[in-house]
Amino acid sequence: MKKELVFYLKWLATVITIAGAICTSVNLYPLGPALLNLGAFVWLIVSIMWREWSLIVINATLLLIYTVGLVIKLLT
Questions:
Q1: DSSP-derived 3-state class of residue 1
Q2: Which among 71, 62, 55 has a CA at the least distance from the CA of 36?
Q3: Mind spelling out the 3-state secondary structure of 15-71?
Q4: φ, ψ of residue 28 in degrees (nearest 5)
Q5: Is the pLDDT assigned to residue 15 strictly greater than 90?
Q6: How far apart, in whole angstroms, are the C-alpha atoms of residue 36 and residue 57?
Q7: Phi-psi region for residue 51, left (φ > 0), alpha (ψ -120 to 50) or beta?
Q8: For all residues of the chain together, what is the average pLDDT?
Q9: pTM, whole model, 2 decimals?
């Protein structure tokens, strides 16, 4: 069951991240960064389930960067 859940989560995260990159490349703001944020969040969940520290660090960092960027942009 856990393997099946991880399989679907990682593909969901991948599709969301690709959609975010496409939206960002055509300047759909804030949709692009929001999707990238969501993709990083789902990948972070998968990384934690795998207990893979390199992926946990990169996805937690990306999540922080995307969140701070969105908050700053939306508040200014």
A1: coil
A2: 62
A3: HHHHHHHHHHHCCCCCHHHHHHHHHHHHHHHHHHHHCCHHHHHHHHHHHHHHHHHHH
A4: -90, 95
A5: yes
A6: 16
A7: left
A8: 95
A9: 0.92
